[in-house]
Amino acid sequence: MPASAATPGSPPVPGGVTVSISRDPALVRTVRLVAAAVARRTGRDEEFVEDVRLAVGEACALLIGVSAPDGDGSDQPVTVAMQMHDGLAVDVSSDVPIAVPHPRGLDFGDTEPWALLRGLIDDFHVHQDGPTTRVSMSWPDSA
Amino acid sequence: MDLSLETRTQDGCTIVEIGGEIDVYTAPRLRDKITELVGEGSYDLVIDMEKVDFLDSTGLGVLVGGLKKVRAHDGSMRLICNQERLLKIFRITGLAKVFAIHGSQAEALAAR
Predict the structure, then answer these.
(1) What's the DSSP call for residue A11?
(2) Average pLDDT of the residues of chain A
(3) What is the ipTM of this complex?
(4) Bridge partners (DSSP) listed for residue A139
(5) Which among A95, A90, A30 has a CA at the least distance from the CA of A68?
(6) For residue A108, what is the DSSP state?
(7) Residue numbers in A near B34 (CB within 8 A)
(8) Residue A10 DSSP class
């Protein structure tokens, strides 16, 4: 259940919410707040809202951490497309060349940065489509 | 809510009380604080996360990095966390087995 084919700079998805931020870690919190507000509209409990808030923030943080050594992608926005239809689907995407955090960007120590998303969401995929990296997450209605 | 960091010493340990959100934006401040404390010779740290509202993998990475720093000096790092939503993050990532996690400062200090 992909949220949309939204890419950075594309218009909002019908019946959903699309937020685009510059590659600034300070703005991830804003996206989390929006994600929590959208999650609440599903009528699910606060544990679900917290999972969505954490997952969306995590995906944004990981994509913001992506930066090739030569600086490719450093000025590309991160776009979050959320859609409520038979549940909640969220795509987080950015025109960055790789789908793993740059080791100089974040201090993950020995933790595997995608482990949290894998553990939080059953339906979680990372796609590389040309220059765009997309993290797709969805939560069915009755999960 | 931004990140707040307060430190004090008790029973030979340095207690770091954290409030707010530990994420990709604020985690570097926590990393700097831990680095500063270890640099000053504080090798037994108690990280009190009771007032933490949010934690992501960047924050987890900083805590793991801190644990490695104190262990390099035969020190210790104990966490105080009794919020289920944070404990869930430690369980999902397997870090609940890596860190000593306690329910209160008294419990953490008594566990030395």
Answers:
(1) P
(2) 80
(3) 0.88
(4) A88
(5) A95
(6) -
(7) none
(8) P
For residues A7-36, one letter each, b for 16 or more C-beta atoms within 10 angstroms of the residue's C-beta and e for the rest, the string is bbeeeebeebbbbbbebebebbbebbebbb
Enumerate residues 16 to 55 of chain B having a beta carbon within 8 A of any beta carbon in chain A.
Answer: 21, 23-25, 27-28, 31, 54
Distance (Å) of CA A62 to CA A70, A104, A135, B25:
18, 13, 10, 12
Task: With CA atoms as reference, report the closest residue to B18 among A109, B100, B26, B73.
Answer: B26
C-alpha span between A23 and A69 (Å, rounded)? 16
What is the share, in percent, of chain B residues with pLDDT greater than 70? 99
3 state DSSP class of A19: strand
Q: How far is B10 from chain A (nearest CA, A)?
A: 28
**More confident of the two residues A87 and A111:** A87
Distance of CA B94 to the CA centre of its chain: 16
